[in-house]
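Final paragraph of the annual report: two paired records, presented back to back.
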Amino acid sequence: MSDTKALSNLAMDAVKAAEAAARAAYDWIGRGEKESADQAAVDALRTGLNAMAMKGRIVIGEGERDEAPMLYIGEEVGTGEGPEIDIALDPLEGTSLTAKNMPNALAVLSLSLRGGLLHAPDTYMDKIAVGPGLPAGVIDLDAKPEDNVIALAKAKEVDPSEITVCILERPRHQYIVDGVKSVGGRVRMIPDGDVAGAMGAAGLGTNVDMYIGQGGAPEGVLAASALRSIGGQMQARLVFRNDDERARAERVGVKEFDRKYDLSELAASHCLFVATGVTDGDLVTGVRKSGGVVSTETLVLDSADHSIRRIRTDLPL
């Protein structure tokens, strides 16, 4: 069996693990306790991963070992038999969204063959992303936001006023908002959840043309794995606020602090991306409990065949 086939064969087990994390987080929706929600998702996801027939290694997780008791960077998961797999995960992407009962909270993980995902430290990352079917190099992380809007509009043969840019709602992004609006573009602000935001630029869930902004580096790699699966372009650069964050980067193998990564470097090989809804969102519906049944919806993207699958699971309570 090829390594690619072996990875694709893990899809349903990965779905079960993500579903378990989403169901565990459900009990904390709207309770204002994001740490409790995150811990519940972590516990359930770890149990699910350890049941999978693989030699798994966490390359993007809850933090370094001294900060996270489980699902830490470098932790080995799985049964110890099967293919060697690198795993990027966010057991609860949108802890604040869950605590406040807001849309787009997800349980997310990406699996790749060993060495297939950038080992990004838990720092910030500047990102820009668009969907498939566009000329190579249509976006540039180093260009002004307004110039990227104009370039994308030209590639799509539309007026800049028809371009919508998804932006994480933060004061640091005001210059992006101003730049987009200066050429007539539209903005779609999101409070959190920039994995879903970047995926929206690829045509999944929202009518968005581009994502620009600074968010978590782990979320950037997760988004890249999704874009590799369905097509698109992405550029990113790690952002360091202090020497401690640079030291973290060095520990995971980052040597060029100012490097501009493209999609092929963020997600270098075959990827399997899985996202289960916790709260209702643009990509999938959230967990439902009704009539003695708990229901989940999961999005599964596989770069081997560029497939997009949506899986609904009903389990008795």
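The closing record of the year follows.
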Amino acid sequence: MTAPAPEERVDGRTARAERTRAAIVDAHLALINEGDLRPTGERIAERAGVSLRALWTNFKDMETLFEASGAQVLAAYDAAFTPVPPDLPRAERVARYCRQRARLLQLIAMPARAAAMREPFSPQLRRNRQKHVERLREEVDVLFAAEFAAAGPAGATLRNAVMAASMWPAWSMLRDGLSLSATEAEAVMTRTITALLMTAEP
């Protein structure tokens, strides 16, 4: 039997390493989604079916694991996102925007709760959050461009207000602080953003 070529052996090791990394990230996010918001390395390794040594061989620390897990959460967010046509009437744009925001915020709810607990101590989690902020800024800049332009010098403030009303901290307050259902929270978001955009009317 012919021995594998060196390139094949390298490719095989690379593929195994990628599978191991993917299993660790999947385990990390699965534990979080099940309510374990601060899973330990031991718990993650056990869930992934790898040794603790393998976990720290593939991820030198929690920050690198946060980076990989954050990328997977963002990829799921992007896959679930559908642009709202910016040429629709304002009421329809707001309704569709808030309906989608509610759905996406529910999608990332558990990772967002977990990140909020550790974010003050984690530069990587703050970088992860900033990526979500940038996605949202790009979205509202297109969707509500007319309203921001009509607001004149106050356009940047209006944009920030719209973003703040539809980001995770506001959603968490509605869902967790006020104990609203997702439907009720969406209605509050819709009313808030509608009222904000009305300030841009001539």
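The two ends are 81 Å apart (CA to CA). This concludes the annual technical report; the extension proposal builds directly on these records.
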